[in-house]
Amino acid sequence: MSDNVRVRFAPSPTGPLHIGGLRTALFNYLYAKKNSGKFILRIEDTDQKRYVKNSEEHIFNSLKWAGLEVDEGPNIGDDGYRQSERKKLYKDKIFELIKTGHAYYAFDRAEDLDNYRTEHSKRGETFIYGPTNRKNLKNSISLKDSEVESILSSKKEYVIRFKMPENSQIICNDLLKGKIQVNSNVLDDKVLYKSDGSPTYHFANVVDDFDMKITHVIRGEEWLPSLPLHTLIYSAFKWKAPRFLHLPLILKPEGKGKLSKRDGDKFGFPVFPISWVSGNGENKGFKECGYLPEATLNFLAMLGWGPGTDQEFFTKTDLIKAFSLDGLNKSSARLDPKKIAW
After folding, report:
1. Which CATH architecture has domain 86-247?
2. 6-84+248-341 domain in CATH 3.40.50.620?
3. Which helix (H) or strand (E) holds 247?
4. Pairing state of beta strands 250-251 and 333-334?
5. How far apart are CA 236 and CA 231, in angstroms?
6. CB-based contact 21:11 (threshold 8 Å)
7. What are phi and psi of 307, to 5 degrees?
8. What is the pLDDT of residues 286-341, one digit of tens each?
9. Is 261 a catalytic residue?
10. Are the C-beta atoms of 10 and 73 separated by less than 8 Å?
11. What pTM does this model have?
12. How far apart are CA 2 and CA 46, in angstroms?
C-alpha cells in the first residue's frame, strides 16, 4: 500500500459522540496508521440549526481520551477543517455544476411539495422530485430562461438540485458489500444548496473529500443509500472518487435494532466515550465508569472486525499491526455489555 492513504472522520456537532462514532473513527485511524497514512478530523457543521453547544469539545476530548491522535483537523495548523469555514469553496463549485448542466434552480414552495407528497401518499405512492416529473414542476428546467432570470433577480428563495440522469443504471462499488446497482429514476434530484445559501451534507461532503485528497471513505452504512448520488457528483465534476466502505451497525444487546442511548440507560452501560452533561443531567461515559481507553478500543475493534486468529487482547499497537479491511464483517455486530466488562 502506498504512503498517501488519507482517511477522515467527519462527525456533525449535533450532540455527544456515540461509541458507534468512536468505532468508525477507530477503523479509519487503524487503516491510516497501518498504511503510513493520515487520519483527518473534519467537523461537518453545515446544519447550524441542529448545532449543539459543547459537541465539538466532546468530540475532541473523546478522541484524545481514546488515544486516536489526529494528523490534520480543527485547531491543528491551518483553518478549513470545519465546513462553516469553507463556504466560498462550496459556492464556487455549485455554480460549476449549474454551468455544466448537472444542477438546476428549483423554485417550488414548501407547501406545494407537501401537497404533492400528500397526494401521492393517498394513492399509495412515494413522491420523487426527479427525472420523471421535474419538467412539470417549477424550476429552471421547466421555465423559460427569461422567467428564471426574473425570479433570481427578484431575490425569491430557491434551492439548487442535482440533475439526476434519466433511466440510467448507476453502478457503485463498496469495498465490503461489493457492486451496487440502482436505477436513476427511483432517486430524487437531491437538494445540493439550501435556500439559506448553505450546502447540504451531500454536496459539502463530496467537495471536501476531493479537496482534502481523501483516498478512502470509511463510514457507517446509514450513508449507503447516498452512495449513488455521491458517485454521480464525482462524475459530474470529472473527479476521481475515493474508495468507499460502509460499516455495519452496532446493534442493541438483544440483537434487534441500532444501539441507542436508551439502551445504555436500560441495561446500565455507557454509550458515550466520556461523560456528556445536558439539561437532563449527566450521562457518564466509559471513562467515568472506570473502563480503560485501551480496553474500550480493544472491545470496539472486535465489534465487526476480527484478526482471523484466536487472539482477543490487543494493545493499540497490536491493532495497527493486525488490522486489515479483509477482517471486517459484512453483518452488524451485537453489543454485549458483559464482554467489555470482562
Report:
1. Alpha-Beta Complex (3.90)
2. yes
3. strand 243-247
4. parallel
5. 9
6. yes
7. -80, -10
8. 999 999 999 999 999 999 999 888 888 899 999 999 999 999 999 887 766 666 66
9. yes
10. no
11. 0.92
12. 33
